[in-house]
Amino acid sequence: MSGDENGDVRGFAAGEVRRLFAEEARAERPDLTTMCLLIGAEADPELGPAGLDAAQVELDRLAGEVPYRPGGARDWAVALRELLGGRYGFRGSATDYQRLESSLLHQVLARRRGLPILLSVVWVEVARRAGAPVHGVALPGHFVVGFGADCEVLVDPFDGGRLLGEGEADALVAGATGAPLSPSMMVPAEPLEVVIRILNNIRSWATARPERSDVALWALELSLRVPHHPARLRHEKGQLLVRRGDFLGGAAELEEYAELVEVVDESLAARVRAEAQTARAMLN
After folding, report:
1. Cross-strand pairs, 146
2. Which of 60, 140, 182, 213 makes the best surface tag, with the fewest CB within 10 Å?
3. How far apart (Å, rounded) are the C-alpha atoms in residues 25 and 35?
4. Phi–psi pair at 178, nearest 5 degrees
5. What pTM does this model have?
6. In what residue span(s) does the Protein SirB1 N-terminal domain sit (predicted)?
């Protein structure tokens, strides 16, 4: 780590963020806030341990401002809407989809703007600290928050915490997929599911900006540290390394992926090995 003249220590040692992320992802009960903040630390070299602590303190502070509500799920939803969406102005807009900061929890806490999934993380983590029965709900195409044991009250943090009326969740799903809402979509999202979805969003953002292949690479590196990640991520990483000019590293990743898939798809393995051979030939 480096420090300034006042002794303020910033950043993490090389590789430390990824080690901590992998450790948390493999914990018995992974902590969503910690993993989201470590994603932010990978994106922002200046965000060191003190920055992570400050973000946790901010979530605690916001939770301390939630009024005591002895009522049911709707009361909790209204209380969080009034605090986060009303008093503090947490919400999103179309332009937030164009900003990497919208996927970084510490930036969302500072800017009070973000993607639906990151705003939902804020809602869930503040409400949970305040004692509310709350869960993230990963609807196709749009992340929302459910209050109550069965997520009977849904709110849309991207719209300032607006409570979704009857049929509105169905409309969100139909608009994104063309299919109706099913009960299987209403299950609480697990922390690792949320984190993978955030990293997928970051990779999509970077894919649309070839000059930011560095972001795509670290997002892939973190995704590969989540247990039971899709094997295809190794293929994606190998191809990305080749595009970045790391022909040997890319070829090695492609060959490892070919070994993994050979037992189930020999023709795919052969195609990937041909990609690796082409990458190695680029050194000549």
Report:
1. 135, 154
2. 182
3. 7
4. 80, 0
5. 0.91
6. 56-200
Residues, the chain = 284
Longest dimension (CA), the chain: 71
60: how many CB neighbours lie within 10 A of its CB? 13
CA-angle at 31, arms to 112 and 206, nearest 5°? 55
Q: Are 145 and 155 in contact (CB under 8 A)?
A: yes
- For 130-177, the pLDDT digits (tens) are 999 999 999 888 899 999 988 889 999 999 999 998 788 878 777 777
Among candidate residues 194, 117, 128, 189, the one with its CA nearest the CA of residue 108: 117
Contact between residue 201 and residue 115 where contact means Cβ atoms under 8 Å apart: yes
Determine contact, residues 18/199, Cβ cutoff 8 Å. no
Domain ranges of the chain: 2-186, 191-281
276: helix, strand or coil:
helix
Long-range contacts of 152-155 (CB under 8 A, 24+ apart): 152/73, 153/73, 153/74, 153/76, 153/77, 155/77, 155/80, 155/81, 155/123
β-partners of residue 10 are: 2
Find where tokens 């609480």 sit.
188
CATH number given to 2-186: 3.10.620
Lowest mean pLDDT among 14-18, 131-135, 182-186, 254-258: 182-186
3-class secondary structure, 117: helix
Give whole-number Cα distances, 37 to 18, 131, 170, 187, 228, in Å. 12, 22, 32, 24, 21
Check for a shared fold between 2-186 and 191-281.
no
Rg (CA), the chain: 21
pLDDT tens-digit profile of 115-137?
A: 999 999 999 999 999 999 999 99
Cβ–Cβ under 8 Å, residues 258 and 246: no
